[in-house]
Amino acid sequence: MAANLPNRLIQRFDRFTLAMGHDVAMAALSFVVTLYLRLGDEFFRYSNELVIGGTITFAAASAFAFWLTGLPRGVWRYVAIDDMILVARSVTLAILIFLPAMFFWSRLADMPRAALLINWFVLFALLIGPRLLYRSVREGRLDLTQGGPRDDQVQVLIVGANDGAELFLQANRRRRRAPYYVVGILDDAERRQGRRMGGTEVLGTPQALESIVVGLKKRGLHPQRLVIATPQIDGDSLSTLVDLADRCGMTAVRLPRINALAGGTADAALEVDPIAIEDLLGRPQTVLDRDAMDRLVRGRRVLVTGAGGSIGSELVRQVAARAPSTLVLLDNSEFQLYSIDREVEESWPALKRESAIADIRDSARLSAIFQAHRPEIVFHAAALKHVPLLEANPSEGALTNAIGTRNVADAAIAAQVQAVVLISTDKAVNPTNVLGASKRVAEMLCQTLDAAVGPTRFVTVRFGNVLGSSGSVVPLFQRQLAGGGPLTVTHPDVERYFMTIREAVELVLQACVLATSDRAGARGGILVLEMGGPVRIQDLARRMIRLAGKRPDVDISVAFTGLRPGEKLFEELFHAEEQSFETEISGIKIARSRTADLERLRDALGELERLARSGDAAGTLAALRALVPEYRPA
C-alpha cells in the first residue's frame, strides 16, 4: 500500500495540473474573445501590450481564484448543478481579483469596463461547456448510433416521475454499458403527461399500463419490468400494479434505495429490489406515540418470555433499542436463546442483559428467576402455536399456553411486577382448536387478574397471523417456490388476518402504554390490534408466484390439500359478547366484558394442570371445553 502511495499522488497531481491548465487556458481565451466581442474590428487596432498583458494578467488572476475555490479538483465525470455553482463562484472571484488591475495599471486603462460583464459569461461558458461535454460523451448521450435497446438490456417502465426516478435514470446512464433501457415513465399527475424527465417521456398513468404497452410494442419496444419508484404506496395500489404488470407479461420490482442510487460508481451494479409480500399487505401507517413507548421502557428492568421466538426476538430488539436498565431473556430453547443473546450483545454491547434457560411450565424455576431479577415489565410471548401439532398433543398445548401463563402471572405478582403483557391470538375467538382454547384460557386469567385491580397490571394484546414468523405460511410458500412448487393451500376459501412482525410488536408496546396509563380505560379488557382486511391464502400464494417472476397455474401450480385438524376457514378478532371500543390510537381497539370468578378459575386451572400432566388427552380437552364454552373442536 505504501509503495502505491507515490503513484496515487502523481495521478492526482497530474489530474489537478491538467484541469488547472485547461481552466487557465480557457480564462486566457475568454479574455481575448471578450475583447473581440466588445470591440469588433477595433480589436485588431488595439496595442499588443493591452491584449497580451491583459490576457496574462487575467489568466494569472483566474489561476489564483481557481486555486482558492478548488475548481480543478472537481470530477468532470459527475459534473452537476453544484459544479455549475462552483464555476460561477470561481469566475466571479477571478473578475474581482482582476478588477483592481484595470484601475492601477495604465496599460489596461483603455479597456472598456463593460467587457468584464461579457467576460463573466464567456468564461463561465468555456469552463462549464467542456465539463458537460465530457460527461455526455462518457454516458453515451452523444452516440448517434444508439437507435434502440441493446440485446442485453432489460427494457423497463418506471412508475412515478419523482426524485427516485431521476436518480435511477442518472445511475443507469453512468454505467459504461447501461443495464436498463427505460422506454417511458408512468405518473398519476395530469400536469406531467407528455413531458420529459431526463430525456424520457411520461407516457400516461399507471392505470393505462395495458394500452401503453400495446402502443410500445407497435414501436418495436417490449418492456419486461415495471420499476415502481413511488416510495409511499399502499398495499392495494401496489397489488393492482403487480396484477397489471402480470397481465402485460412484466414483472414488478421496487426501485433501489435512494442512497444506493446516489452513491453508486460507474462500475457498480444497479440492481432493482424485488417486491416483498409484506408490501402488498401494507396499510396506512398507524401514528404511534413513540416518546411514550420510550418512557415505558427506558431505565426499567424488562423480562421477555419466549425471547428467541419470532415475536419474542422482535420484542427484544425494540425493547433493547429503548435503553432499559436490564433486559432478561427467557426461553426454553438453548439455540434460540443463544442466537438472540448474541444479537443483543453485538447490537447493544453496553446494555446489561441476562439470559435464562427456563420452561414456563416450571413454576419454581420461574419464581426463582423473577425473584432474582425483579423485573418491572414482563412481555409474555412464550407459547406453543402450531395448530395441527397441538391437536395431536393437547396436553402440551394446555400446559404451556394456559398453565404456563398462570405460572408467569403468579411469579409476577410475587415479584411485584408493574405490568405483564400477554401476547394472544385471534384463534382465541370462538376457538376450534387447542391453540385457540388454551390461549382463551390465558386471556380469561389475565383479564380477571387485571379487573381485580391489584398492584400488577395484566395487559392482553390480541392479533392475527404474523408474516415471517416460524409458523407463518409465507416461509412455507418460499420453500415450495424454491423447490419448483406446487404451493399448497388447505382450502380455496381459507383466509387470515396478517401483519408484519415489526408492526405487531410496535403496536404491542403502544398497547402497553395505553393500558398502563389507564388512558384507554383498559382494566379487564383485551387490546385488539387493527389487522386491515382478511387475505385469502390462495391469493397470497398466487401473488408470491408472480413476485417470483412466474405465472400461477402455468409455471407453478397451487394445490388444495384440505383443512388440517383444528383449522377453520376464517378467524375473528372479536367475540359476539365482547363490546369493542375505539382508543386514541387508530390501530388499537379494546374488547371488554368476559371476565370470570378468580377462585373458580384457579380451581379449574388446577384440574386442567392435573389432567394435562398425567397425559390424559381426553380429560384435557374436556377441561378446556368446560373453561371455554364456545370451544368447538373442528
Task: Walk me through the topology.
Elements: H1 5-39, H2 48-69, H3 81-104, H4 115-138, E1 154-159, H5 163-174, E2 180-186, E3 196-197, E4 200-204, H6 209-218, E5 225-228, H7 235-247, E6 251-254, H8 258-262, E7 273-274, H9 277-280, H10 290-297, E8 301-305, H11 310-320, E9 326-331, H12 334-347, E10 353-357, H13 363-373, E11 377-380, H14 387-392, H15 394-414, E12 419-425, H16 434-451, E13 457-463, E14 465-467, H17 473-482, E15 487-489, E16 495-496, E17 498-500, H18 501-517, E18 526-529, E19 535-536, H19 537-547, E20 558-560, E21 579-582, E22 588-592, H20 598-613, H21 617-627
Parallel strand pairs: 1-2, 1-5, 2-4, 5-6, 8-9, 8-11, 9-10, 11-12, 12-13, 13-18, 14-17, 15-20
Antiparallel strand pairs: 3-4, 6-7, 16-19, 18-22, 21-22
Terminal CA distance reads 71 Å
What overall form do the CA principal axes indicate?
Answer: elongated
The CATH superfamily title of the largest domain: NAD(P)-binding Rossmann-like Domain
What is the CATH fold-level name of the largest domain?
Answer: Rossmann fold
Summed over residues and divided by their number, the pLDDT gives a mean of 81
Total number of beta strands: 22
What does this molecule look like?
This protein is α/β, with parallel strands linked by helices and 634 residues long. The chain folds into three domains: 134 residues, no CATH class; 122 residues, NAD(P)-binding Rossmann-like Domain (Rossmann fold, 3-Layer(aba) Sandwich); 338 residues, NAD(P)-binding Rossmann-like Domain (Rossmann fold), CATH 3.40.50.720. The strands form five sheets. A nine-stranded mixed β-sheet has the order 10-9-8-11-12-13-18-22-21, with helices on both faces. A seven-stranded mixed β-sheet has the order 3-4-2-1-5-6-7. A two-stranded parallel ribbon has the order 14-17. Strand 8, helix 11 and strand 9 form a beta-alpha-beta unit. The chain is elongated, with a radius of gyration of 35 Å. About 2% of the residues have low confidence.
